[in-house]
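Thread: Newbie trying to understand structure tokens

Hi all, I'm a second-year student working on a class project, and my supervisor (Dr. K.) asked me to get a predicted structure for one chain before our next meeting. I've only ever worked with sequences, so writing a 3D structure as a token string is new to me. If someone could post the tokens and maybe explain what I'm looking at, I'd be very grateful. Here's the chain:
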Amino acid sequence: MDSAHVGEMAQIRVVLADDHPIVRSGIRGLLEREPDIAVVAETRDGVAALRLARDLTPDVLLLDLELPELSGVEVARRIRQDGSAARVLVLSAHDDEAHILGLLAHGAAGYLTKAEAPGRIVDAVRGVARGETGWFSQSVAATVARAAQERARSTRADTLFTLTARAASVDLAGARPRQHADRGRVIRLRGDCQEPHHEHLR
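---
Reply by user tm_fold:
Sure, no problem. This is what the structure looks like when written as tokens:
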């Protein structure tokens, strides 16, 4: 990227939260090689990550999940609750469904595993800073797709059950007047049968 062009635009401000110092150092070095990205702060624990996100209002909070004091999931939840402008990009060793869906439910814009290619991490930081969502590692994308399919099947099953129950209710409602009508005919028949007796009494 042309340095003169970078000078004309604001840098992407990143707060980095990871409890492993070697990992933090490597990611910081990766990002700071890019002239349009600046790591404005880093931390090893969740409480500090939340405070830095609130105080510095970075463009991107690059967030690990296993943080002391406060988990990454809880940090993301509170940032969303605050209405903070900081956008969360998860960088984690975990790619299980519970963690992924939990973070996405709390507004994470992307979820990458630490096995992701360095260039992909840089691209994701830029994309999330632009307001993009759906920056996923391949394994994460597969988990999200599978969960969406399961939810769709569940929704279809619920809809089918609702429609079936509604149809059954309509059938029952339609059957009741016929039952009453049958009863009415029975009553009328009994009345007819009683007519000769009335005439005889008269």
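A couple of things are worth pointing out once you decode it. The domain at 3-136 is CATH 3.40.50.2300 (Rossmann fold). The chain has a mean pLDDT of 80. Feel free to ask follow-ups in this thread.
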